Amino acid sequence: MVQAVKRIVIVGGGTAGWLTAGVIAAKHRGRMGAGFSVTLVESPNTPIIGVGEGTWPTLRSTLARIGVSETELFRQCEAAFKQGARFTGWTTGAADDFYYHPLMLPQSFGQLNLVPHWLARDDGRSFCDAVSPQGRLCDDGLAPKTIATAEFEAVANYSYHLDAGKFAPFLQRHCCEKLGVRHVLADVRRVNLAENGDLRSLDTVQAGEIEGDLFVDCTGFKALLIGETLGVPFKECGDVLFCDRALAVQVPYANDAAPIASQTNSIAQSSGWIWDIGLPARRGVGHVYSSRHISDDEAERELRAYIGPAAAGLSARKIPIRSGHRETFWKRNCVAVGLAAGFLEPLEASAIVLIELSAKLIAEQMPVCREVMDLIAARFNATTHYRWGRIIDFLKLHYVLTKRTDSAFWRDNLLPETIPDRLNDLLLLWSHQSPWFHDEFDRVEEVFPAASYQYVLYGMGFRTQVEPSALDGDAKNAERALRENVIQTERLRAGLPRHRDLIRKIVEHGMQAV
Amino acid sequence: MPTIELLDPRAHGHLRLRAAAAEVPHFVQIVAAEFASAAACCPILFTKENVTGAFFAGAIFGFKPGENLLGSVEERSGFNPLILQREGFFISEQNIAIDREHARFSETEGEPLFDGAQQPGEGLRAIQRTLGNIHQGLEQTKAFIAALLELKLIESIDIALTFEDGERVTLQGLYTVSLDRLRDLDDAAALRLFRAGHLQLAYTMVGSLKQMPRLARLRNQRARCS
Q1: Does B150 touch chain A if contact means CB atoms closer than 8 Å?
Q2: Which residues of B touch A507 (CB under 8 A)?
Q3: What range does the domain containing A300 cover?
Q4: Do A230 and A332 contact (CB within 8 A), yes or no?
Q5: A152 part of a folded domain
Q6: Are A229 and A328 within one domain?
Q7: The last residue of a domain, from among A296, A320, A344
């Protein structure tokens, strides 16, 4: 007789726990009557870390699939629109040094790679502005849609900035009220193993014993199940990504009409970088830095200097960062999601997107019985390993393209032994041919598409050799796409509302579902 | 610039009312009670208000601003949208307001707004009834739209037309009732919709789409004659 997998027990109630609960419950709603259950066990005493105020556009489809209302997301989670990231000072550190990594794909991306055409023109236009309107939309402080655009639909591609402390309770309400997730507020006292070494149940202080067939570890850095119980080691990657500390503050606006940035601002510092994220009621600002290169005090001084007079009287919260991930993500009948699986500096908002991708993979590949679980686990591990590797490569890319030599932090980032082999190979490849649609990035649901690599590479002044004669075949189409971008840019700039105005309207009137 | 003033017999006793302009916009907001007569001559669709994003219903008279393919009220079998009849007049709370600058108001032409005893004249009384109908009609339409939204029955519709003269028109931001989803309704929901009078409105809207090819034909004819 096979051992059915029907009782899913998620431990931990942060963003990871509730997103995973929502994605699994929504996918398996039809089985709920037939003994399938999703239980989330959450300590009433553990505070939520609430990292990751930035998200990826995948969150729109994830939330739509779970069935929440986007209007309510704005009303309850202090959400704002994010159209990309603006990197200041990463390449040379000079006053005019910035580039955008927008969320819209370059024009005609599916048909045509504009990179060589843009390079051949060499007309002084930034890559982003040549191929996408979104940098200009961000400069103008515009929203990516209008009040007449349906929920989760975009005029310009977008994701969200949100208050993670409000996002988890928002998901919780929906999961419990609409999706039939059982919420147990209890402290786990002990994890009980079965004879074969699987997890069998949790002993809780307040709710007795809770049995499960599959356990999802969303206990954050503690990694109660995957780490403490099953002993899966943590694989550090501090030798590649140096930042190991963050200082975070919340900065109020000068007044309630102040513009809200619709991009994440990432401003390079002497030994790390500062994030600056606009929510409707406040900005979240933080300094991520390498403690090997700068002292906490000096890092705080840089943070306060960036914020200016508004920093007076604000106290900074110190957050330790341990860059890396588990050696195995799914072991036996336990799978880790969120911080329990790993963490990287929030340079490209990869935390929540990884939660979504993991939750989706678990929900879609949900093993029917224990007998096939190890096969699914092996697949899950292969895919998830690949994803962490690609994210680490992509984050490192931001550092290896720098021309800064003004501090040890930037110089050390160029040391060959700190650069993953695969990234080195890619850089060699890219010096002769630019990344695009089909080559390299052939995996289903690549975390960062080839377009992201294009924006970072050419935003930071990377140059790929172009053979002019190879362009001829596509020259007309490229011409058309670049012209279309100019027209689209002007049309969107004229037609989109100001970011704060749209959020105010959404809160007041709501968006339509269609 | 419109100058909106609350209607007052003392301030506006000298004003006269001219007929509403013959100009018809290519898309006119209508209310539920007008659906049946509108459907007899033009397509009825939903679109969204600019300011709030809320849905409202409208009748299509032409494919682009300034184009009225349906001619005069007589040519439209008498269909004359309420919203056009009350041109120049508004409701402000419980009162009637007017746009003093609107071409309907004159000091020399048309019939007097008020009679000698400062009572509303014939024309103004008709406007009062129209405003009442609009007010009530908007409420009914809102309830209809809310019922459709609740049952997820509204879907967007893209209309792309190529005319004989080569001109292409794409109408965007339009919505109608989804027949597929209407068919999928459970009995209880269908009955509720029927009892509220909403089912008939829904089918009237869908049926009115048959006017779209007729409108396109009129557009082609007009191009041929000009």
Answers
A1: no
A2: none
A3: 244-320
A4: yes
A5: no
A6: yes
A7: A320
Q: Can you give the pLDDT at residue A156?
A: 98
**Min CA distance, B154 vs chain A (Å)?**
7
DSSP B44: E
Q: Give the residue ranges of DSSP H helices in A401-474.
A: 408-412, 421-432, 450-459
Q: Find all residues with CB under 8 Å of A468, minimum gap 6, and list them.
A: A120
The CATH number covering residue A252 comes to 3.30.9.100
Give the angle A406-A407-A409 at the CA atoms, nearest 5°. 135
Residue A127 domain flag = no
The tokens for B65 are 């601003």
What is the CATH number for A171?
A: 3.50.50.60
Mean pLDDT of A35-64: 88
Residue A437 confidence (pLDDT) above 90: no
Average pLDDT over residues A344-355: 93
The DSSP bridge pattern shows strands A159-161 and A80-82 to be: antiparallel
Lookup result for tokens 């202090």: A78
Residues A201, A269 within the same domain: no
Nearest to A512 among B50, B51, B55 (CB): B55
Q: How far apart are CA B16 and CA A246, in angstroms?
A: 73
Q: Shortest Cα distance from B60 to chain A (angstroms)?
A: 19
Tokens of A15: 């963003």
Q: Give the integer Cα–Cα distance in Å for A390 and A441.
A: 10
CA angle B212, B214, B217 (to 5 degrees): 115
CB contacts < 8 Å between A and B, how many?
37
Token pair for A430: 């890219």
Q: How confident is the model at residue A57 (pLDDT cuts 50, 70, 90)?
A: very high
pLDDT at A135: 98
**Of A355, A373, A390, which residue is a domain's last?**
A390
Per-residue pLDDT at B67: 92
A510 falls within a domain: no
What secondary structure does DSSP assign to A300-353, as a single string?
Answer: HHHHHHHHGGGGTT--PEEEE---EEES-SEETTEEE-GGGTEE--GGG-HHHH
Taking residues A164-186, report their average pLDDT. 96
Query: Which residue of the set A6, A27, A82, A166 is catalytic?
Result: A82
DSSP state for residue B33 in the 8-state scheme: G
Task: Tell me the pTM.
Answer: 0.92
User: What total number of domains does chain A contain?
Assistant: 2
- Within-domain flag for A116: no
Contacts of B152 in chain A (CB under 8 A): 513-514
Residue-by-residue pLDDT tens, chain B, 226 positions: 788 999 999 999 899 999 887 678 999 999 999 999 999 999 999 999 999 999 999 999 999 998 999 988 888 888 999 999 999 999 888 899 999 899 899 999 999 999 888 999 999 999 999 999 999 999 999 999 999 999 999 999 999 999 999 999 999 999 999 999 999 999 999 999 999 999 999 999 999 999 999 999 999 998 888 7
Ramachandran sector of residue B91 (left: φ over 0; alpha: ψ -120 to 50; beta: rest): beta
Within a 10 A sphere around the Cβ of A165, how many other Cβ atoms?
Answer: 16
What are φ and ψ of residue B79, in 5° steps? -70, 115
CA B69/CA A82 separation, integer angstroms: 44
The answer to whether residue A511 neighbours chain B at the CB level (below 8 Å) is yes
Predicted local distance difference test score (pLDDT) of residue A50:
57
| Best CA proximity match to A458, nearest among A96, A100, A12 | A100
